[in-house]
Amino acid sequence: MCVQYPGFHAGGGNFAKSMPMHILQLGPYPPPEGGISRNMLAIRDELRVGGHRCSIAATSRSSRVGAEPDVYHPGSALALIRLLASLKFDVLHLHIGGDIGTRVLLLAFAATVFGRGQCILTLHSGQFPLTNEAKNAGPQSIRGRIFRRFVRIIAVSNPIADVFRRYGVPDERIEVIVPFSAKLPDPEVEVPAILDDFRRKHSPMLLAVGGLEKDYDPLFQITAMKDIVAEFPSAGLMIVGDGSMRAEVEQAVSASGHAGAIMIAGNIDHAVTLHLIDASDLLLRTTLFDGDAISVREALFLGTPVIATDNGMRPERVHVIAIGDRRALIENVSEAVKGGKHERAISPPDDKNIEKIIKVYKEIAPPSLS
What mean pLDDT is reported for the chain? Predict the structure, then answer.
């Protein structure tokens, strides 16, 4: 495990920046794809380009586990503890999102124990400031005591940073860094024929990127297709992602009367998803609970119109509707389709947010002993 070296102070300038680091990230590992895992993989890619090593320990169950160097899939909390105790690394970076319950708090505490002196936390849930826990945040709470054990906190928005301040985390230990990095689709990546055929046969093509879980409200999208097809007879809906509602969603598609216009694509690689976002006429992000979704940012970057439920933090140019407002969805689909695709962003892909995270690693990593 990493240790506190004599004379080392977090944020000090005595780290030989040219020396390679070994970073251990804890968080979800795909599949399924998700915003947190995409951020983790972008960090890993940037570290490798810089000559550093990055290991990942999955903290949730992946739907497909394969042998991959420096990727670990501990099957239990005890297995994760044993892994943390056995690995040697310079910085431990824990990524969490969604509800911060007892299990997540215990994971956070364990991260500070095994990454003492060099541990970072990123909270990805954009809706966290609206939770009761965040509204009642205080420095003497258990959450506050655990959060202050991290040498740095990365918040993906200013409202999240404000919550950590109320938990008693000093300003100098809080970094606000957005978790997404806009990229163009890789021309070397091919879209599977079954997905590409469906896209070509339907216009307008609606794409929903999320999962088959309650928070993503897939049944709302499926039932809305009746009205969408009535206005656009060739319309199609493709839902990317999988989850616990798979059987219920498939049954709803069969009963919709428009099964030929709806495809449940399941989990697919992010590189393919990016091509689908680029080729679609419209991205749907109609959810019950959501943060600053990366798929929304990617669609805007690529010029694909977006319809999303209003969570108070949607970027400009997004068509926002209230949760479950079917009439508003149909109206916005019509408006967005008539408006057509936007111009792609002129600016090149921006990786500065990932560079900022690497900079934080270098600031807190222990000095070389060589």
Answer: 88
* Alpha carbon distance 149, 169 (integer Å): 9
* Least confident span in 211-215, 244-248, 290-294, 309-313: 290-294
Q: Going by DSSP bridges, is the β-strand pair 306-309/282-285 parallel, antiparallel, or unpaired?
A: parallel
**67 vs 354, higher pLDDT:** 354
pLDDT for res 10: 36
Whole-angstrom CA distances from 54 to 37, 43, 47, 97, 127 are 14, 9, 7, 21, 29
Q: Compute the distance between CA of residue 312 and CA of residue 288 in angstroms, rounded to an integer.
A: 13
| H or E element, residue 153 | strand 152-155
Q: Which two tokens stand for residue 66?
A: 């394969």
**DSSP structure string for 55-103:** EEEESS--SS----TTEE--SSHHHHHHHHHH---SEEEEEE-S---HH
Cα R_g (the chain), whole angstroms:
22
Q: Which residues of 288-309 are buried (b: 16+ CB within 10 A; e: fewer)?
A: ebbbbbbbbbbbbbbebbbbbb
Number of other CB atoms surrounding residue 192 within 10 Å: 12
Residue 15 has pLDDT above 60, yes or no: no
Residue 319, beta-bridge partner list: 307
Distance CA 340, CA 323 (A): 24
